[in-house]
Amino acid sequence: MTMKSLKSVLALSLSLTLAACGQQTSPGQSADLSAQALTTSPSQRFVIVFKDQRVPADAAQRVSAAGGRVLKAVPEAGVATVSGNAAVRAKLERDSAVLAVGLEHLYTLPTNTERVAADASNTDGAYSATAADTLYKFQWDMRRIGAQVAANRVGSAQAGITVGVLDVGVMSDHPDMVNQLAFSTGTNYCQETGKDGTTGYPVYSKFIDFDAHPEWSPADGCATANTVYEDHGTHVAGTVAGAVGGGGIVGVAPGAKIAAYKVFDRYRYTDAQGTLQDGVGGFDGPIFSAIVDAANRGVNIINMSLGGTLDRSNKDDNASWLAWQRVMNYADKKGTLIIASAGNAAESSNGAVAHIPSDVPGIMSVSASGVTALTTDAGGNLVANGPDVLAFYSNYGASTDIAAPGGDCGTNSANGLSWCDRPSGNRANRPATYFHNLILSSVIDYKTGKADYAWFAGTSMASPHVAGVAALVKAQHPEFSTNQLKAYLKRTAENVGQKQRFGSGLANADLATR
Protein backbone atom coordinates (compact mmCIF):
# COMPACT_ATOMS: atom_id res chain seq x y z
CA MET A 1 0.00 0.00 0.00
CA THR A 2 1.37 3.41 -0.91
CA MET A 3 1.41 6.23 1.60
CA LYS A 4 -1.27 7.95 -0.47
CA SER A 5 -3.61 4.95 -0.27
CA LEU A 6 -2.75 4.46 3.40
CA LYS A 7 -3.87 8.01 4.10
CA SER A 8 -7.13 7.31 2.28
CA VAL A 9 -7.67 4.25 4.47
CA LEU A 10 -7.00 6.28 7.59
CA ALA A 11 -9.47 8.90 6.41
CA LEU A 12 -12.35 6.49 6.92
CA SER A 13 -14.95 7.61 9.41
CA LEU A 14 -14.67 6.20 12.91
CA SER A 15 -17.01 3.31 13.54
CA LEU A 16 -17.71 1.21 16.58
CA THR A 17 -19.59 -2.06 16.91
CA LEU A 18 -20.04 -4.53 19.71
CA ALA A 19 -20.49 -7.47 17.37
CA ALA A 20 -18.05 -10.32 16.99
CA CYS A 21 -14.91 -9.46 15.06
CA GLY A 22 -15.44 -10.62 11.50
CA GLN A 23 -18.98 -11.83 12.08
CA GLN A 24 -21.00 -12.50 8.91
CA THR A 25 -23.32 -9.56 9.39
CA SER A 26 -22.87 -5.94 8.57
CA PRO A 27 -20.43 -4.19 10.93
CA GLY A 28 -23.22 -2.38 12.72
CA GLN A 29 -25.16 -5.49 13.64
CA SER A 30 -24.78 -7.89 16.51
CA ALA A 31 -25.83 -11.49 16.89
CA ASP A 32 -25.98 -14.29 19.42
CA LEU A 33 -22.95 -16.37 18.50
CA SER A 34 -22.92 -18.67 21.50
CA ALA A 35 -21.70 -22.19 20.74
CA GLN A 36 -24.42 -24.44 19.49
CA ALA A 37 -25.18 -27.76 17.95
CA LEU A 38 -26.91 -26.70 14.74
CA THR A 39 -30.36 -28.26 14.83
CA THR A 40 -32.42 -27.05 11.87
CA SER A 41 -34.51 -30.16 11.13
CA PRO A 42 -35.00 -33.82 12.04
CA SER A 43 -31.98 -34.47 9.80
CA GLN A 44 -28.84 -33.41 11.57
CA ARG A 45 -25.06 -33.53 11.50
CA PHE A 46 -23.16 -35.81 13.86
CA VAL A 47 -19.65 -36.34 15.14
CA ILE A 48 -18.58 -39.98 15.38
CA VAL A 49 -15.69 -41.04 17.57
CA PHE A 50 -14.54 -44.56 16.69
CA LYS A 51 -13.13 -46.93 19.29
CA ASP A 52 -9.87 -47.23 17.39
CA GLN A 53 -7.53 -44.27 17.13
CA ARG A 54 -7.96 -44.35 13.34
CA VAL A 55 -11.08 -44.29 11.17
CA PRO A 56 -11.90 -47.87 10.07
CA ALA A 57 -11.29 -48.67 6.42
CA ASP A 58 -14.97 -49.52 6.00
CA ALA A 59 -16.29 -46.42 7.82
CA ALA A 60 -18.07 -45.02 4.75
CA GLN A 61 -19.86 -48.34 4.23
CA ARG A 62 -20.87 -48.52 7.90
CA VAL A 63 -22.32 -45.01 7.79
CA SER A 64 -24.07 -45.68 4.49
CA ALA A 65 -25.56 -48.92 5.83
CA ALA A 66 -26.98 -46.88 8.72
CA GLY A 67 -28.54 -44.48 6.21
CA GLY A 68 -26.13 -41.58 6.65
CA ARG A 69 -23.46 -39.80 4.62
CA VAL A 70 -19.87 -39.05 5.60
CA LEU A 71 -19.07 -35.33 5.39
CA LYS A 72 -15.52 -35.20 6.78
CA ALA A 73 -13.21 -37.92 8.00
CA VAL A 74 -10.11 -37.38 10.13
CA PRO A 75 -8.45 -40.79 9.73
CA GLU A 76 -5.49 -40.02 12.01
CA ALA A 77 -7.75 -39.31 15.01
CA GLY A 78 -10.51 -41.87 14.49
CA VAL A 79 -13.11 -39.12 14.05
CA ALA A 80 -15.67 -38.36 11.32
CA THR A 81 -18.67 -36.12 10.79
CA VAL A 82 -21.81 -37.42 9.08
CA SER A 83 -25.32 -36.31 8.17
CA GLY A 84 -28.46 -38.24 8.96
CA ASN A 85 -31.56 -38.44 11.15
CA ALA A 86 -32.27 -39.86 14.58
CA ALA A 87 -32.57 -43.39 13.19
CA VAL A 88 -29.11 -43.08 11.60
CA ARG A 89 -27.71 -41.95 14.91
CA ALA A 90 -29.30 -44.83 16.79
CA LYS A 91 -27.84 -47.37 14.37
CA LEU A 92 -24.38 -45.83 14.58
CA GLU A 93 -24.50 -45.86 18.38
CA ARG A 94 -25.06 -49.62 18.20
CA ASP A 95 -22.15 -50.12 15.82
CA SER A 96 -19.42 -52.18 17.47
CA ALA A 97 -16.71 -49.91 16.02
CA VAL A 98 -18.20 -46.70 17.43
CA LEU A 99 -17.31 -45.18 20.83
CA ALA A 100 -19.56 -42.09 20.81
CA VAL A 101 -21.97 -40.15 18.59
CA GLY A 102 -23.12 -36.59 19.18
CA LEU A 103 -24.29 -33.51 17.31
CA GLU A 104 -21.64 -31.67 15.32
CA HIS A 105 -21.00 -28.31 16.91
CA LEU A 106 -20.56 -24.87 15.44
CA TYR A 107 -17.79 -22.70 16.91
CA THR A 108 -17.73 -18.97 16.48
CA LEU A 109 -15.62 -15.89 16.88
CA PRO A 110 -15.86 -14.67 20.48
CA THR A 111 -18.54 -12.05 21.10
CA ASN A 112 -18.47 -8.78 23.06
CA THR A 113 -15.30 -7.45 21.47
CA GLU A 114 -14.69 -3.78 20.88
CA ARG A 115 -14.00 -2.83 17.29
CA VAL A 116 -12.88 0.57 15.98
CA ALA A 117 -11.70 1.38 12.47
CA ALA A 118 -8.49 3.33 12.11
CA ASP A 119 -8.90 6.82 10.69
CA ALA A 120 -7.01 10.07 10.40
CA SER A 121 -7.96 11.11 13.91
CA ASN A 122 -6.59 8.04 15.66
CA THR A 123 -3.96 6.60 13.92
CA ASP A 124 12.31 1.67 14.98
CA GLY A 125 17.80 -3.75 13.60
CA ALA A 126 16.41 -6.05 11.00
CA TYR A 127 13.28 -6.72 13.05
CA SER A 128 12.70 -3.22 14.38
CA ALA A 129 9.81 -1.08 13.23
CA THR A 130 10.78 1.23 10.38
CA ALA A 131 9.53 4.60 9.22
CA ALA A 132 7.20 2.69 6.90
CA ASP A 133 5.47 1.08 9.89
CA THR A 134 3.46 4.20 10.51
CA LEU A 135 1.04 2.66 13.03
CA TYR A 136 3.60 0.96 15.24
CA LYS A 137 3.51 3.91 17.62
CA PHE A 138 0.00 2.81 18.61
CA GLN A 139 1.05 -0.77 19.40
CA TRP A 140 1.47 -0.40 23.16
CA ASP A 141 0.88 -4.14 23.43
CA MET A 142 4.11 -4.94 21.58
CA ARG A 143 6.09 -2.67 23.87
CA ARG A 144 4.36 -4.12 26.93
CA ILE A 145 5.64 -7.64 26.18
CA GLY A 146 9.03 -6.58 24.77
CA ALA A 147 8.27 -7.98 21.32
CA GLN A 148 10.68 -5.89 19.23
CA VAL A 149 13.77 -6.51 21.37
CA ALA A 150 12.92 -10.22 21.48
CA ALA A 151 12.48 -10.46 17.70
CA ASN A 152 15.87 -8.85 17.17
CA ARG A 153 17.45 -11.15 19.72
CA VAL A 154 16.12 -14.27 17.99
CA GLY A 155 16.91 -12.94 14.53
CA SER A 156 16.73 -14.99 11.35
CA ALA A 157 16.00 -18.25 13.18
CA GLN A 158 12.35 -17.16 13.14
CA ALA A 159 12.18 -18.00 9.45
CA GLY A 160 12.13 -21.68 10.30
CA ILE A 161 8.97 -21.41 12.41
CA THR A 162 5.39 -21.58 11.14
CA VAL A 163 2.29 -20.55 13.06
CA GLY A 164 -1.03 -21.91 11.88
CA VAL A 165 -3.92 -19.45 12.09
CA LEU A 166 -7.20 -21.40 12.04
CA ASP A 167 -9.76 -18.71 11.39
CA VAL A 168 -11.82 -17.04 8.67
CA GLY A 169 -8.84 -16.83 6.32
CA VAL A 170 -5.97 -14.36 5.95
CA MET A 171 -5.56 -11.54 3.43
CA SER A 172 -2.25 -12.64 1.90
CA ASP A 173 -1.90 -9.45 -0.16
CA HIS A 174 -2.30 -7.08 2.78
CA PRO A 175 0.86 -4.90 2.96
CA ASP A 176 1.69 -6.38 6.35
CA MET A 177 1.10 -9.96 5.16
CA VAL A 178 2.90 -9.97 1.80
CA ASN A 179 5.52 -12.77 1.83
CA GLN A 180 4.50 -13.74 5.38
CA LEU A 181 2.40 -16.78 4.46
CA ALA A 182 3.95 -20.24 4.15
CA PHE A 183 0.71 -21.41 2.56
CA SER A 184 -3.02 -20.71 2.56
CA THR A 185 -5.76 -23.30 2.32
CA GLY A 186 -9.39 -23.92 3.18
CA THR A 187 -10.70 -26.98 4.99
CA ASN A 188 -14.18 -25.48 5.23
CA TYR A 189 -17.12 -26.96 3.34
CA CYS A 190 -17.93 -24.10 0.93
CA GLN A 191 -14.52 -23.59 -0.55
CA GLU A 192 -13.89 -20.74 -2.96
CA THR A 193 -10.73 -19.36 -4.49
CA GLY A 194 -9.61 -15.88 -3.51
CA LYS A 195 -7.75 -13.41 -5.69
CA ASP A 196 -4.46 -14.89 -4.48
CA GLY A 197 -5.44 -18.21 -6.05
CA THR A 198 -5.87 -20.04 -2.71
CA THR A 199 -8.88 -21.37 -0.85
CA GLY A 200 -7.65 -19.75 2.36
CA TYR A 201 -8.47 -16.18 1.33
CA PRO A 202 -11.12 -14.48 3.55
CA VAL A 203 -13.76 -14.04 0.82
CA TYR A 204 -17.32 -15.26 1.45
CA SER A 205 -19.72 -15.43 -1.49
CA LYS A 206 -21.01 -18.96 -0.89
CA PHE A 207 -23.06 -20.34 1.96
CA ILE A 208 -24.63 -23.52 3.28
CA ASP A 209 -28.39 -23.26 2.86
CA PHE A 210 -29.88 -25.44 5.59
CA ASP A 211 -33.41 -24.37 4.64
CA ALA A 212 -33.05 -25.74 1.11
CA HIS A 213 -30.96 -28.74 2.20
CA PRO A 214 -31.71 -29.78 5.81
CA GLU A 215 -29.46 -32.83 5.31
CA TRP A 216 -26.80 -30.72 3.62
CA SER A 217 -23.61 -32.39 2.51
CA PRO A 218 -20.90 -31.16 0.13
CA ALA A 219 -22.68 -33.02 -2.68
CA ASP A 220 -25.56 -30.53 -2.36
CA GLY A 221 -23.24 -27.65 -3.20
CA CYS A 222 -23.24 -24.16 -1.76
CA ALA A 223 -25.59 -21.31 -2.61
CA THR A 224 -24.31 -17.91 -3.73
CA ALA A 225 -24.80 -14.54 -2.07
CA ASN A 226 -23.35 -11.06 -2.07
CA THR A 227 -19.59 -11.13 -1.55
CA VAL A 228 -18.22 -10.01 1.79
CA TYR A 229 -14.80 -10.32 3.42
CA GLU A 230 -14.08 -11.47 6.95
CA ASP A 231 -11.36 -9.56 8.79
CA HIS A 232 -10.77 -11.48 12.01
CA GLY A 233 -8.08 -13.84 10.69
CA THR A 234 -6.05 -11.04 9.14
CA HIS A 235 -6.07 -9.14 12.44
CA VAL A 236 -4.89 -12.25 14.29
CA ALA A 237 -2.18 -13.02 11.72
CA GLY A 238 -0.91 -9.44 11.86
CA THR A 239 -0.45 -9.70 15.61
CA VAL A 240 1.50 -12.95 15.22
CA ALA A 241 3.77 -12.02 12.32
CA GLY A 242 2.95 -8.67 10.72
CA ALA A 243 5.93 -7.75 8.51
CA VAL A 244 8.56 -5.13 9.26
CA GLY A 245 8.30 -2.30 6.75
CA GLY A 246 4.96 -3.53 5.48
CA GLY A 247 3.26 -0.19 5.79
CA GLY A 248 1.47 -0.24 9.13
CA ILE A 249 1.85 -2.59 12.08
CA VAL A 250 4.52 -5.08 13.20
CA GLY A 251 3.82 -8.50 14.72
CA VAL A 252 5.39 -10.24 17.70
CA ALA A 253 7.47 -12.53 15.47
CA PRO A 254 7.81 -10.71 12.12
CA GLY A 255 10.34 -13.21 10.87
CA ALA A 256 8.06 -16.21 11.31
CA LYS A 257 5.64 -17.59 8.72
CA ILE A 258 1.87 -17.97 8.80
CA ALA A 259 -0.04 -21.07 7.70
CA ALA A 260 -3.48 -19.66 6.95
CA TYR A 261 -6.41 -22.05 7.34
CA LYS A 262 -9.93 -21.00 6.45
CA VAL A 263 -12.07 -23.21 8.70
CA PHE A 264 -15.23 -21.10 8.77
CA ASP A 265 -18.33 -21.37 6.57
CA ARG A 266 -21.11 -18.96 5.93
CA TYR A 267 -24.52 -20.50 6.61
CA ARG A 268 -28.23 -19.66 6.65
CA TYR A 269 -31.22 -21.29 8.30
CA THR A 270 -34.60 -20.27 9.68
CA ASP A 271 -34.83 -20.67 13.44
CA ALA A 272 -37.81 -21.82 15.50
CA GLN A 273 -39.11 -18.24 15.69
CA GLY A 274 -39.13 -17.92 11.90
CA THR A 275 -36.11 -15.61 11.81
CA LEU A 276 -33.51 -16.10 9.07
CA GLN A 277 -30.09 -16.60 10.62
CA ASP A 278 -27.07 -15.65 8.52
CA GLY A 279 -23.66 -16.13 10.06
CA VAL A 280 -20.21 -17.65 9.85
CA GLY A 281 -18.96 -20.48 12.00
CA GLY A 282 -16.48 -23.30 12.09
CA PHE A 283 -17.84 -26.83 12.30
CA ASP A 284 -16.07 -29.67 14.10
CA GLY A 285 -15.09 -31.50 10.92
CA PRO A 286 -13.27 -28.69 9.06
CA ILE A 287 -11.49 -27.55 12.24
CA PHE A 288 -10.31 -31.09 13.01
CA SER A 289 -9.12 -31.50 9.43
CA ALA A 290 -7.12 -28.28 9.64
CA ILE A 291 -5.45 -29.27 12.92
CA VAL A 292 -4.40 -32.65 11.58
CA ASP A 293 -3.22 -31.17 8.27
CA ALA A 294 -1.14 -28.57 10.10
CA ALA A 295 0.38 -31.22 12.33
CA ASN A 296 1.19 -33.42 9.35
CA ARG A 297 2.87 -30.50 7.60
CA GLY A 298 5.07 -29.78 10.59
CA VAL A 299 3.41 -26.51 11.60
CA ASN A 300 5.02 -25.67 14.95
CA ILE A 301 2.22 -23.73 16.63
CA ILE A 302 -1.51 -23.38 16.02
CA ASN A 303 -3.54 -20.36 17.09
CA MET A 304 -7.30 -20.73 17.46
CA SER A 305 -9.10 -17.51 18.32
CA LEU A 306 -12.50 -19.17 18.25
CA GLY A 307 -14.66 -21.17 20.54
CA GLY A 308 -17.85 -22.28 22.16
CA THR A 309 -19.09 -24.12 25.22
CA LEU A 310 -19.82 -27.78 25.86
CA ASP A 311 -21.54 -29.50 28.76
CA ARG A 312 -19.73 -32.78 29.30
CA SER A 313 -22.72 -34.23 31.14
CA ASN A 314 -24.62 -34.01 27.84
CA LYS A 315 -24.15 -37.00 25.52
CA ASP A 316 -24.06 -34.82 22.39
CA ASP A 317 -21.44 -32.54 23.85
CA ASN A 318 -19.36 -35.37 25.23
CA ALA A 319 -18.81 -36.83 21.75
CA SER A 320 -17.31 -33.54 20.59
CA TRP A 321 -15.20 -33.37 23.75
CA LEU A 322 -13.78 -36.83 23.07
CA ALA A 323 -13.13 -35.89 19.44
CA TRP A 324 -11.29 -32.74 20.48
CA GLN A 325 -9.12 -34.77 22.85
CA ARG A 326 -8.25 -37.20 20.06
CA VAL A 327 -7.31 -34.46 17.62
CA MET A 328 -5.34 -32.50 20.24
CA ASN A 329 -3.40 -35.62 21.22
CA TYR A 330 -2.51 -36.27 17.60
CA ALA A 331 -1.19 -32.73 17.16
CA ASP A 332 0.78 -33.05 20.39
CA LYS A 333 2.43 -36.28 19.22
CA LYS A 334 3.40 -34.58 15.97
CA GLY A 335 5.02 -31.70 17.89
CA THR A 336 2.41 -28.99 17.27
CA LEU A 337 1.45 -26.78 20.23
CA ILE A 338 -2.14 -25.53 20.16
CA ILE A 339 -2.90 -22.14 21.72
CA ALA A 340 -6.49 -20.90 22.06
CA SER A 341 -8.45 -17.92 23.33
CA ALA A 342 -10.24 -18.41 26.65
CA GLY A 343 -13.48 -16.75 25.54
CA ASN A 344 -15.17 -13.40 26.00
CA ALA A 345 -18.13 -14.12 28.27
CA ALA A 346 -16.47 -12.79 31.46
CA GLU A 347 -17.21 -16.19 33.01
CA SER A 348 -15.33 -18.62 35.20
CA SER A 349 -14.28 -21.93 33.68
CA ASN A 350 -14.53 -23.61 37.10
CA GLY A 351 -17.69 -25.55 36.41
CA ALA A 352 -19.32 -28.32 34.40
CA VAL A 353 -19.45 -26.28 31.23
CA ALA A 354 -16.17 -26.24 29.31
CA HIS A 355 -15.00 -23.61 26.85
CA ILE A 356 -13.85 -25.31 23.66
CA PRO A 357 -11.16 -25.59 22.50
CA SER A 358 -9.27 -23.70 25.22
CA ASP A 359 -10.34 -25.98 28.09
CA VAL A 360 -9.28 -29.21 26.36
CA PRO A 361 -6.32 -30.64 28.32
CA GLY A 362 -3.06 -29.96 26.52
CA ILE A 363 -4.30 -26.86 24.75
CA MET A 364 -2.83 -23.61 26.09
CA SER A 365 -5.66 -21.35 27.27
CA VAL A 366 -5.10 -17.58 27.08
CA SER A 367 -7.00 -14.92 29.01
CA ALA A 368 -6.92 -11.27 27.96
CA SER A 369 -5.31 -8.40 29.83
CA GLY A 370 -5.48 -4.65 29.53
CA VAL A 371 -3.76 -1.80 31.31
CA THR A 372 -5.31 0.84 33.54
CA ALA A 373 -3.85 3.70 31.51
CA LEU A 374 -1.53 4.62 28.65
CA THR A 375 0.96 7.43 28.24
CA THR A 376 3.16 8.70 25.41
CA ASP A 377 6.93 8.27 25.62
CA ALA A 378 9.60 10.66 24.33
CA GLY A 379 9.41 9.05 20.89
CA GLY A 380 5.67 9.59 20.58
CA ASN A 381 4.82 5.93 21.24
CA LEU A 382 1.95 4.74 23.40
CA VAL A 383 3.19 2.76 26.41
CA ALA A 384 1.51 1.11 29.37
CA ASN A 385 1.19 3.40 32.37
CA GLY A 386 -0.30 1.41 35.20
CA PRO A 387 -0.98 -2.12 36.38
CA ASP A 388 -2.23 -4.92 34.15
CA VAL A 389 -5.87 -5.88 34.66
CA LEU A 390 -8.07 -8.72 33.49
CA ALA A 391 -9.96 -7.35 30.48
CA PHE A 392 -13.61 -6.65 31.24
CA TYR A 393 -14.83 -9.37 28.83
CA SER A 394 -12.25 -12.12 29.47
CA ASN A 395 -13.05 -15.60 30.75
CA TYR A 396 -10.89 -16.83 33.61
CA GLY A 397 -10.48 -19.77 35.97
CA ALA A 398 -8.36 -22.80 36.76
CA SER A 399 -7.99 -23.75 33.09
CA THR A 400 -6.27 -20.44 32.26
CA ASP A 401 -2.61 -21.11 31.47
CA ILE A 402 -1.32 -17.65 30.61
CA ALA A 403 -2.45 -14.12 29.76
CA ALA A 404 -1.56 -11.59 27.07
CA PRO A 405 -2.73 -8.15 25.94
CA GLY A 406 -6.20 -8.42 24.45
CA GLY A 407 -7.20 -4.80 24.85
CA ASP A 408 -9.48 -3.08 27.31
CA CYS A 409 -10.64 0.53 27.45
CA GLY A 410 -8.53 1.89 30.29
CA THR A 411 -9.72 2.21 33.87
CA ASN A 412 -11.89 4.85 35.49
CA SER A 413 -9.85 5.73 38.58
CA ALA A 414 -13.01 6.88 40.35
CA ASN A 415 -14.46 3.37 40.58
CA GLY A 416 -11.63 1.11 39.43
CA LEU A 417 -13.68 -0.35 36.56
CA SER A 418 -13.09 -0.46 32.82
CA TRP A 419 -14.37 2.50 30.83
CA CYS A 420 -16.24 -0.09 28.73
CA ASP A 421 -18.04 -1.59 31.71
CA ARG A 422 -21.77 -1.22 31.08
CA PRO A 423 -23.40 -1.74 34.50
CA SER A 424 -21.22 0.92 36.12
CA GLY A 425 -22.26 3.59 33.61
CA ASN A 426 -18.63 4.08 32.61
CA ARG A 427 -19.27 3.36 28.94
CA ALA A 428 -21.37 6.47 28.41
CA ASN A 429 -18.62 8.68 29.83
CA ARG A 430 -15.48 7.03 28.50
CA PRO A 431 -12.69 9.26 27.15
CA ALA A 432 -12.62 10.06 23.45
CA THR A 433 -9.37 8.10 22.99
CA TYR A 434 -10.39 5.03 25.01
CA PHE A 435 -9.88 2.83 21.94
CA HIS A 436 -6.11 3.41 22.04
CA ASN A 437 -6.23 0.77 24.79
CA LEU A 438 -7.44 -1.81 22.24
CA ILE A 439 -5.19 -3.89 19.95
CA LEU A 440 -4.31 -2.37 16.58
CA SER A 441 -3.61 -4.74 13.70
CA SER A 442 -4.21 -5.41 10.02
CA VAL A 443 -7.66 -6.19 8.59
CA ILE A 444 -9.46 -6.58 5.28
CA ASP A 445 -12.36 -4.23 4.60
CA TYR A 446 -15.68 -6.04 5.06
CA LYS A 447 -17.30 -4.72 1.87
CA THR A 448 -14.49 -3.75 -0.51
CA GLY A 449 -11.83 -6.33 0.27
CA LYS A 450 -9.16 -3.62 0.51
CA ALA A 451 -6.36 -3.54 3.06
CA ASP A 452 -7.17 -1.68 6.25
CA TYR A 453 -6.32 -1.42 9.96
CA ALA A 454 -8.49 -1.53 13.06
CA TRP A 455 -8.47 -1.72 16.85
CA PHE A 456 -10.10 -4.86 18.25
CA ALA A 457 -10.41 -6.19 21.78
CA GLY A 458 -10.91 -9.77 22.83
CA THR A 459 -9.26 -12.98 23.92
CA SER A 460 -8.98 -13.46 20.14
CA MET A 461 -6.36 -10.71 20.26
CA ALA A 462 -4.59 -12.11 23.33
CA SER A 463 -4.01 -15.62 21.99
CA PRO A 464 -1.92 -14.57 18.93
CA HIS A 465 0.43 -12.62 21.20
CA VAL A 466 1.22 -15.89 22.97
CA ALA A 467 1.51 -17.71 19.63
CA GLY A 468 4.05 -15.09 18.53
CA VAL A 469 6.08 -15.46 21.72
CA ALA A 470 5.92 -19.25 21.31
CA ALA A 471 7.30 -18.85 17.77
CA LEU A 472 10.28 -16.86 19.05
CA VAL A 473 11.00 -19.39 21.80
CA LYS A 474 10.66 -22.35 19.44
CA ALA A 475 13.13 -20.66 17.07
CA GLN A 476 15.64 -20.50 19.91
CA HIS A 477 14.84 -23.98 21.20
CA PRO A 478 13.84 -26.20 18.27
CA GLU A 479 14.43 -29.22 20.49
CA PHE A 480 11.50 -28.32 22.78
CA SER A 481 8.56 -30.71 22.77
CA THR A 482 5.07 -29.21 22.98
CA ASN A 483 4.98 -29.83 26.73
CA GLN A 484 8.41 -28.26 27.20
CA LEU A 485 7.45 -25.24 25.12
CA LYS A 486 4.23 -24.76 27.04
CA ALA A 487 6.01 -25.12 30.39
CA TYR A 488 8.73 -22.68 29.35
CA LEU A 489 6.21 -20.04 28.28
CA LYS A 490 4.50 -20.35 31.64
CA ARG A 491 7.76 -20.31 33.59
CA THR A 492 8.97 -17.12 31.87
CA ALA A 493 5.62 -15.32 32.15
CA GLU A 494 5.53 -12.12 34.19
CA ASN A 495 3.63 -12.41 37.47
CA VAL A 496 0.90 -9.77 37.25
CA GLY A 497 -1.74 -11.02 39.66
CA GLN A 498 -4.13 -13.80 40.57
CA LYS A 499 -3.57 -17.18 38.94
CA GLN A 500 -7.29 -17.64 38.32
CA ARG A 501 -7.24 -14.51 36.16
CA PHE A 502 -3.83 -14.59 34.52
CA GLY A 503 -2.69 -18.20 34.86
CA SER A 504 1.09 -18.27 35.19
CA GLY A 505 1.23 -14.59 34.27
CA LEU A 506 1.60 -12.26 31.31
CA ALA A 507 3.44 -13.71 28.31
CA ASN A 508 6.62 -11.67 27.93
CA ALA A 509 8.67 -12.03 24.73
CA ASP A 510 11.69 -10.26 26.18
CA LEU A 511 11.86 -12.45 29.30
CA ALA A 512 11.17 -15.63 27.33
CA THR A 513 14.03 -15.10 24.87
CA ARG A 514 16.81 -13.99 27.22
Key traits:
6-stranded mixed β-sheet, single chain, 514 residues, 8-stranded mixed β-sheet, 28 strands, 22% helix, 12 helices, alpha/beta
> Fraction of residues in helices?
10-25%
Largest sheet: 8 strands, mixed
**How would you classify the helix and strand content by structural class?**
alpha/beta
Strand content: 25-35%
Helix count equals: 12
Described by the principal axes of the CA atoms, the overall outline is globular
What would you note in describing this structure?
It is a single chain. This protein has about 525 residues and is an alpha/beta fold. Helix content is about 20%, strand content about 25%. The longest helix has 19 residues, at about 315-335. The relative contact order is 0.16.
Short description:
It is built from 12 helices and 28 strands.
Question: What is this structure's SSE topology?
Answer:
Layout: H1 3-10, E1 16-17, E2 36-37, E3 44-50, H2 59-65, E4 69-74, E5 79-84, H3 86-93, E6 98-103, E7 105-107, E8 115-117, H4 140-144, H5 147-154, E9 162-167, E10 181-186, E11 203-209, E12 223-229, H6 232-241, E13 257-262, E14 265-270, E15 276-283, H7 284-296, E16 301-304, E17 308-311, H8 315-333, E18 337-341, E19 353-356, E20 364-371, E21 374-376, E22 382-384, E23 388-390, E24 402-405, E25 411-412, E26 417-418, E27 439-444, E28 451-456, H9 459-476, H10 482-491, H11 499-502, H12 509-512
Parallel strand pairs: 9-13, 9-16, 10-13, 11-14, 16-18, 18-20, 20-24
Antiparallel strand pairs: 1-8, 2-7, 3-5, 3-6, 4-5, 7-15, 8-28, 11-12, 14-15, 17-19, 20-23, 21-22, 25-26, 27-28
Helix pairs in contact: 5-9, 6-9, 7-8
